[in-house]
Amino acid sequence: MTALSVHGLHKRYGRVPVLNGVDLDVARGSVTAILGPSGCGKTTLLRIVAGFDRADAGTVTLNGTDVSSGRTVLPPDKRAIGYVAQEGALFPHLDVQANITFGLPYLTTGRRQRRDRAAALLELVSLDPSLARRYPHQLSGGQQQRVALARALARKPSLILLDEPFSSLDAALREATRTAVVATLKAENISTLLVTHDQAEALSMADHIAVMTDGRFTQTGPPQQLYARPATLGTALLLGPASTLDGTVDNGRASCPLGALPLTRHCPDGDATVVIRPEQLHLSDAGTTADTGATVIGCEFFGADTVVTVRIAGGATIRARAAGTTPYHPGRPVAVTVHGPVHAYPRQGPGSRPDDVPPADGPGSR
Amino acid sequence: MIPTGPAAGAARRRLRSLPPLRLLVPCLLIAGFTAIPLAVIVYYCFDVGWAVVEPLVFRPLIGELLANTVLLCATTTACCLTAGVALAWLVERTNLPGRGLWLALLASPLAIPAFVNSYAWISLVPELHGLWAATLITSLSYYPFVLLPVAAALRGLDPALEETGRSLGLGPVRVWARVVLPQLRPAMLGGSLLVALHLLAEFGAIEQLRYATFATAIIAQYESTFASTAANALAAVLIACCLLFITLEVLTRGRARTARLGSGAARAATPVRLGRLTAPAVAVPLAVVGLAAGVPVYSVTHWLGHTGSAGHAMSALLPVLATTAELAALASAATVAAGFPLAWLSVRHRSLMTTVLERSTYLASAVPGVVVGLALVTVAIRYTRPLYQTTILVVAAYVMLFLPRAMVNLRSAIGQAPPVLEEASRALGQTASATFRRVVIPLTAPGVLSAAALVSLAVTTELTATILLAPTGTHTLATEFWSAAAEIDYPAAAPYAVCMIVLSLPSAYLLLRQSARGVTR
Question: How many domains in chain A?
Answer without folding.
Answer: 2
